[in-house]
Structure formats: C-alpha cells, structure tokens
Amino acid sequence: MPETTTAPSTAPDAAPTARRTLRLGVAGPVGTGKSSLIATLCRELSGELAMAVVTNDIYTDEDARFLRSAGVLDAERIRAVETGACPHTAIRDDITANLDAVEDLEAEFAPLDLVLVESGGDNLTATFSPALIDAQIFCLDVAGGGDVARKGGPGIGRADVLVVNKADLAPYVGVDVERMVADASAARDGRPVLAVARTDAASVARLCDWVRGVLTAHRSGAHVPQDPGPMAPHGHGPGAGHGHGHGHAS
Ligand SMILES: Nc1nc2c(ncn2[C@@H]2O[C@H](COP(=O)(O)OP(=O)(O)O)[C@@H](O)[C@H]2O)c(=O)[nH]1
Ligand SMILES: [Mg+2]
Predict the structure, then answer these.
(1) In a domain, 65, yes or no
(2) 202, exposed or middle or buried, with CB in 10 Å at 0-12, 13-18, 19+?
C-alpha cells in the first residue's frame, strides 16, 4: 500500500501565511507593452522591494535583453526562458522551465519580495497556470481597438487586474479610454481595470499600489490565486488550422 507522505495543502494545520515571494504573471498579446510595464514596475518598486524577472521569449531572449538594457534591475536578476513555437504552453500546461527559473531566482536572491513572469504573449487568451504564479496582470493596449475588451476570454475576464495600456495613444487611434475601461469592467464583473500610460505618473502609481496591495494580501494569506481558465483550442502558424493545435478536455 502506498505511503502518504505529504499532507494536502487544505490541511487544517497548513501554515496560515503564504510564501514571502509574490509570483506575478504579466500576460497579453504581443506588443501591448508587457516588457515596458515590467520595466516600469522594476523602476518604481525595486527601491522598496527585492525583485526578479522571468521572460518567456519564443525564439530569442529579446525581452530579457530589453529589460537588462533598460538598467532597471541587475542583469542577473532577469532570466529568459525560451519557449519555442508555443509560448503559452510553457506558462499554462508544462510550467517546468518557468518554475525552475522562478525557484532558481528565489534561491539565489533570497529573500525576494516579487518575481514578475512575462508570458510569451502570442494571442488574446493565454493565461498562466495558478501552479506557476500567484496573481496575474492581463495587458491590452488602446491601439488594439476599443472593442477588444468586450471580446472577453479568460485573461480579459478573470485576470486579477486588466491593464488598458498605452492610454496616451488613445486620441491618435480614436479610442475612448473611459469607455474601454467601462466595457472591460462590465466584462469582468467589476474586477479591477486600470488605464495606464508609462508617461502618466498617476496611472503608474495606481498600478504600483495595486501590486503592493496584492503583495500584502499574499503575505497575510488573504489572497487566493485564481485560475482564469484554459485558453480555447487554437492553431499556430501559416495555414490556419494546419499548424500545431491543441485543446483541453475540460
Ligand atoms: N505610447 C506608448 N507606447 C508604449 C507604452 N508602453 C509600451 N509602449 C511601446 O509599445 C511597444 C511594445 O512594447 P513591449 O513592452 O515590447 O510589448 P510586449 O510585446 O507586450 O512586451 C514598444 O515600442 C514600446 O515602446 C506606453 O505606455 N505608451
Ligand atoms: Mg515583451
């Protein structure tokens, strides 16, 4: 008969407080400003929080190089996971490479307060596994169009916060930011939505306050990681439907 060696995490004597380090995912389509958002968070928060970053690049370490060159964090605190053709799998279905990178950073730079994990954004629906991260930001930008927030999907609907990014570009692309935020809020049953522009200090301050709030809740055990849900079945590459495709049973 197999021996039971580990108590389930729901055991009544489980520690009331969580890990010190908050693992925060940043997901969203390519180009919506995830790396820039991470650079901004590092710039604003690394004076008060011990931080590290994991990027998920498809074929290169471009995002990690961008962040290192931004000079907002020591270069060795930024790790790249190269995810191949299917970047969302590495943050959702086979999280081993990312978990290794996060745990290496946490061991090497202990004690860390915050590890940011950037998804290799490839589409609108990729979300992180709650086994990899404790909370997630989903990033859209105004240049993607004002109606994109209404389209929903697991990240838009249920990420811990939705960032409507590059709000400074709204007048140039004919998007009403307030309307986009209101549509997104409706699609999220009132979960938080923040309009952010990296040049707008007040919007950056609101985002930093949100991060501090999640960190505090995480440490007290009050924050419960949510699973936004799996992405829809999809295909990759040229010839829609002929590329790699996979779905989920439930
Ligand atoms: N106008 C404007 N451009 C931004 C902002 N944030 C990022 N960008 C630009 O958007 C582009 C994509 O940003 P990046 O962070 O690489 O996006 P990622 O692919 O989601 O990581 C870059 O040219 C950034 O300089 C912003 O707040 N306002
Ligand atoms: Mg990036």
Answers:
(1) yes
(2) exposed
In a domain, 248, yes or no: no
- Expressed in angstroms and rounded, the spacing between residue 59 Cα and the centre of ligand 2 is 12
> Which CATH number characterizes residue 73's domain?
3.40.50.300
Tell me which residue range forms the domain holding 144: 22-221
Residue of 35, 36, 140, 196 with the most ligand 1 atoms within 8 Å of its CB, for mutation: 36
Question: How remote is the CA of residue 32 from the centroid of ligand 1, in Å?
Answer: 6
Please provide residue 79's backbone torsions phi and psi, each rounded to the nearest 5 degrees: -115, 140
How many domains would you assign to the chain? 1
Q: Relative to the alpha carbon of 122, which ligand is closest?
A: 1
Question: Do the beta carbons of residue 124 and residue 151 sit within 8 Å?
Answer: yes
* pLDDT tens figures, 157-166: 999 999 999 9
Atom from ligand 1 closest to the CA of residue 32: 20
Q: What separation in Å is there between the alpha carbon of 142 and the centre of ligand 1?
A: 11
Instruction: Determine the atom of ligand 1 nearest the C-alpha atom of 63.
Output: 21
Q: How confident is the model at residue 93 (pLDDT cuts 50, 70, 90)?
A: confident
- 237 in any annotated domain: no
Of the candidates 183, 186, 123, the one whose C-alpha atom is nearest the C-alpha of residue 147 is: 183
Residue whose pair of structure tokens reads 């936004």 in the numeric block: 228
Q: What is the pLDDT of residues 34-67, one digit of tens each?
A: 999 999 999 999 999 999 999 998 778 889 999 9
In a domain, 226, yes or no: no
Across the chain, mean pLDDT equals 86
